[in-house]
Amino acid sequence: MSTELQELFQKNRDWAADVEQNEPGFFSRLLVQQTPQYLWIGCADSRVPANELVGLLPGELFVHRNVANVVAHSDLNALSVIQFAVDGLKVQHIIVVGHSNCGGVRAALQDLRLGLVDNWIRHVKDVRNLHAALLEEVPPERRIDALVELNVLEQAHNVCDTTVVQDAWSRGQDVVVHGWVYGLHNGLLEDLNITARTPADVPAAYQRALAGIRARYVAA
What we know:
Blueprint: H1 6-22, H2 26-32, E1 38-43, H3 50-53, E2 61-66, H4 76-88, E3 93-99, H5 103-110, H6 117-130, H7 132-137, H8 143-161, H9 163-170, E4 176-182, E5 189-191, H10 201-217
Helix pairs in contact: 5-6, 8-10
């Protein structure tokens, strides 16, 4: 690898040429406006490239990423992204996406000490503690992925509770919140069925998704 990272600039030129060849005028159109229908809130893991997973081009997916796809009510970064997406871009779907074998979730589950990021992972530990009884029923080798799904459930619930989404729903704006998980082992997305488009949807959606997680991870 070169010090100047010329190989990345070359890959960028190749990518831009391919896009322009396949869709002539694409970048000229993109310059005028972006009109995504979706906000993706995902993990910062380099193995989870949001646009590629759903086959969307730049301008078609608004993306926010952080360690373990957390939506904290005190995180002005995430909240600002959600507000711009909902109020400015008028996205119709907000999708919280976790992924299997997430390192941040593993650290929370196993109480690993990693440094400054421990303070951020504290949010996932809160999810672990909230669902401690359920996790105790899960076989040890499956607990990481169970907590991945529980974390998506709680973060999607947090999105529903934001003032931005609550205000959008109160004025009748179409905003649907989803929770998904991406499988690193197979490249597939899975819907956890916490899907809400009004405040009234949230309690039933939460319980439905929680029951689904229990059914998948706890032996009958």
